[in-house]
Amino acid sequence: MSAAAVARDTGARLAAADAAGLNATLYWSQELLDAEARRVEALPADSSLHGMPIALKDNIVTTDAPTTCASRILAGYVSPYEATAVTRLRGAGAMVAAKANMDEFAMGSSTEHSAFGRVVHPLDPSRVPGGSSGGSAALVAAGVVPAALGSETGGSVRQPASFCGVVGVKPSYGRVSRFGLVAFGSSLDCISVFGRTVDDAARVLAAMSGHDPLDRTTLDRPSMRRPEPRRDLRGLRIGLPREYFPADLHPGVAAGMERARRATRELGAELVDVSLPHSAFAVPTYYIVAPAEAAANLARYDGVRYGPRRIGAAGGIQALYQATRGEGFGPEVQRRILIGTYVLSAGYYDAYYRKAQRVRKLIADDFRRAFTGGVDLLLTPTTPTPAFRAGEKTGDPVAMYLADVFVCAISLAGLPALSLPVGRSEGLPVGAQLIGPFFEDEAMLAAAAALERALGADAEVR
Amino acid sequence: MSIGRDDVLHVARLAELAVRDEDLPRLVDQLNRIVDYVAQLDRLPAEAAADPQAGESDPDDPFLPGPAQVTLRDDVPGPVPLARPPAEFAPEFAEGFFLVPRHGAMEDL
User: Fold this and answer.
1) CATH superfamily of A3-208
2) Which of the following is catalytic: A110, A133, A151, A156?
3) Is A156 a catalytic residue?
4) CA-CA distance, A316 to A310, in Å (whole number)?
């Protein structure tokens, strides 16, 4: 199939997804797709992603489409520069297909916090696709694109991948450049990938990984290669952290994990019990560290440098800042800015922020101890339940935060992790999470490919 | 620890965020709920929480949580990789400066 034909086909799929009410895109056009096809046809046909259409979460900047972060405060913003990850994907032959809907500024776990309406779960319109990269996940799950970029700060790709039944991979922190990813929590943010298969996600990750002089937190190490999939898991010791298998785990998720455990053993891996005791503190730690960094990063949206501007009733420059930000940010972003400002404010910094940084180190040390203690990978559920219903958790921010209970410790520790579909419970996908040691992304993906082959993702589990 | 209406207004002022009166009761409730939730870190004994900068660094795993990981680049100016020159996206650009309207003349966009 030529790139031009793929571009036409992708446009038709995007139009069908829009018509079906998925609300997964914030911007796409057939003209841009056709221009991408013409550009790709001039590239060598053996480029690693030749003609692959890819959707981008709308917090990853391009120069030929708006970037809104699903926020009114960035309405009409078009970046004067392009994200390094996008430049690398385009260089490898990928075509940018669409900008995907998301929770505003990537804050949320259901993609209900978009200023442009919620994203609908492709399998059940009454449910959420997860978040914050819910638009990207839904586009891959609905078969619109084979791969999409999302971003993770505390699980925002693995959690929606689990809900939507696709593969979601968060690389090690420092593996992929953050240049051109709109900043939320800079010590946590990672551009991450959704794929229909482990191989699709691995190809995209390999193409965009590597040191970038424009992001000093990328490590100057050889780029990731597309891993050779393993035929089996012989010789691997896989740890099951007991804190991630609570007694009240949803029965469908527990059944999916039992299936994953059995397949892992049948493929020759040795399963061992491990403990990550401080993971219990991951969500409260995350909800101090991430809002603190967000409060600082989002200070730049003030009506002077970006977006629409509102004159405050009191006049003066501060009234302008306050009115613009008060009207431009949605409720969840406002909550996080307020919490972040509170934990950094005089009198509370030591009690909250400094303490959270210290607990973050304890959480990271738990993982390090497990891996240096002879475990090659860790296996856990990705989420405590399958996709929940829209509106179920919007009234209680803490209930929403707990949807990330199994994913955010890994973000705090900077480790690579992925979610792999392992079956369906009452028709809804269940995901298992594989976690690797720092910068062992390739080994983790190779093991996931073996497990993927052994498991039919569409099988019903009980 | 309890957050009251005045605390929310104080933090909103620090954050340069206008908060509507009708939103205040909800914000007070929700911020209290979040702060009560994160306060469970107090269950950890103080000595258990290690200094993030402490301990030996592992060359194979240089990840340090938080600001400790930041390395500074050499202070050498270089070109910013813009797709378009500033003159194209700034309304007015002269002699290396962005020209902006006087504040008093700002209009609601």
Assistant:
1) Amidase signature (AS) domain (3.90.1300.10)
2) A156
3) yes
4) 11
Instruction: Say if residues A402 and A334 touch (Cβ distance below 8 Å).
Output: no
Contacts of A356 in chain B (CB under 8 A): 38, 41
Does the annotation count A71 as an active-site position? no
A233-276 per-position pLDDT tens digit: 999 999 999 999 999 999 999 999 999 999 999 999 999 999 99
- Partners of A337 on chain B (C-beta within 8 Å) are 15, 17
Does a structural domain hold residue B6?
yes
Residue B15 belongs to some domain of the structure: yes
Residue A132 annotated to the active site: yes
Tell me A206's DSSP state: H
Task: Assess whether pLDDT exceeds 60 at residue B109.
Answer: no
| Residue B34 in tokens | 């979040």
How many domains in chain B? 1
Among chain A residues, CA nearest to B37: A284
Name which of A207, A87, A200 is nearest A146 in CA terms.
A200
Count residue pairs from A and B with Cβ separation < 8 A: 168
pLDDT digits (tens, 9 = 90+) for A163-181: 999 999 999 999 999 999 9
Dump pLDDT digits (tens) for A118-174.
999 999 999 999 999 999 999 999 999 999 999 999 999 999 999 999 999 999 999
ipTM: 0.91
pTM recorded for the entire structure: 0.93
Contact A94, B98 (CB under 8 A): no
Identify the CATH number of the domain in which residue B36 sits. Answer: 1.10.20.60
Instruction: Confirm or reject contact between A353 and chain B (CB < 8 A).
Output: no
Residue A3 has pLDDT above 70, yes or no: yes
Contact assignment for A81 to B80 by CB distance below 8 Å: yes
State the CB neighbour count (10 A cutoff) for residue A26: 23
